[in-house]
Amino acid sequence: MAVKDYIRERFFPHIWCSGCGHGMVLNGLLRAIEKIGLDKNEIVMVSGIGCSARISGYVDFHTLHTIHGRALTFATGIKMSRPELKLIVPMGDGDALAIGGNHFIHAARRNMDMTAIVINNRIYGMTGGQYSPLSGYGTMSTTSPYSNIDHDFDVVELSVAAGASFVGRTTTYHVKQMADILGQAIVHKGFSVVEIMSQCPTYFGRQNRLGTAIDMLEHFKENTTPVGSKAKQKNPDLVERGIFVQKKMPEYCDEYDKIIERAKKGN
Amino acid sequence: MKEPKLKEHVINRDWCKGCSICVYFCPNKVLELDDGDKAFAKRPEDCICCKLCEFRCPDLAIEVITYRESEVIL
User: Fold this and answer.
1) In which domain, by residue range, is A125 found?
2) What is the ipTM metric for this complex?
């Protein structure tokens, strides 16, 4: 199947701005799914609210466009009732870690088999460029015109601490790595988190004078390094990308089935 | 395995938003924007079929068709 077979062409061109990273994430995700060879009817995509959440409208899987921050809770419900389906939950940084922060850490702790994609463009784009929990100290936004004094989360460290059994990070510049990590995350049995550093040239880029989408992609190229590289030791400011955690842990739906079996036996 | 040979770049002008990510990151500078700010293959003979433009396009607007692929479809 070609990538085009996985999308709802009637909704294109999509609403995202020229040069937006969300389209690149969609592109990489479709290539990952094509490579694994999943059937469209095996996949459920659940999204919340925001620019990133619009992704579920463009893919021809089972899709659910839900409420802000609660994509993972809806996904949990679907997985409990239909554990044979593959759940993919793309979220923006604000959707995943501000409004849905509590759901995120507990979903990670529970280790239910699904893939959470945190598309991190460090801003609330759809509502006009307000700062998010991932904007970081010293950044400019509509709601921090004299610069932001909040510190940001590290999505990878947070996910590892919360107990996710697969944690990866990549950027929109590294498209082949993106498709590779997303593919491994989808195949992984357990809760997978993939942070994809993405560009919002319209708000984050403009307000922080980072230039065009191309300049922002160049920034990802220059300021990231493969996990465990020597470059990181020389320059601790580099952001590591790759797979940080990939471990086997009891999966929630499997464990729940065992509980049902035990309850049926009455002991 | 032979190197894939370019058949054509299929560019969907209705979907292209002219961000020029494909133009900038093409290793052989094959693509350019036309007067309407839409990507087109100016030097298709230089294309090495790496497909990075296709993979990076945020609008899913480019497809690099190679002969091997088109033969498989036929």
Assistant:
1) 3-265
2) 0.90
Q: Which residues pair with B10 in a beta bridge?
A: B63
Domains in chain B, number: 1
pLDDT reported for residue B2: 67
Q: Give the HSE-up count for residue A233: Cα atoms under 13 Å, Cβ half-sphere.
A: 3
Assign B57 a pLDDT band (cuts: 50, 70, 90). very high
CATH number at residue B64: 3.30.70.20
Tokens of A144: 């921090």
CB-based contact B60 A23, cutoff 8 Å: yes
Dist. CA A43–CA A34, nearest whole Å: 12
| A17, A22, A214 member nearest B24 (Cβ) | A214
Q: Does A193 touch chain B (CB under 8 A)?
A: no
Domain-embedded: residue B20? yes
Nearest CB to B19 within list A3, A4, A19: A19
Q: How many domains does chain A contain in total?
A: 1
Q: Tell me: the pLDDT tens digits for A158-207?
A: 999 999 999 999 999 999 999 999 999 999 999 999 999 999 999 999 99
| Residue A7 sits at the chain B interface (C-beta within 8 Å) | yes
> What domain range is B52 assigned to?
6-73
Is residue B29 a part of any domain in this protein?
yes
Task: Give B71's pLDDT tier (boundaries 50, 70, 90).
Answer: low
CATH number where A31 lies: 3.40.50.970
Closest Cα partner for A99 from A63, A135, A128, A70? A70
B1 is a domain residue: no
Where chain A has pLDDT below 50, the residues are: none
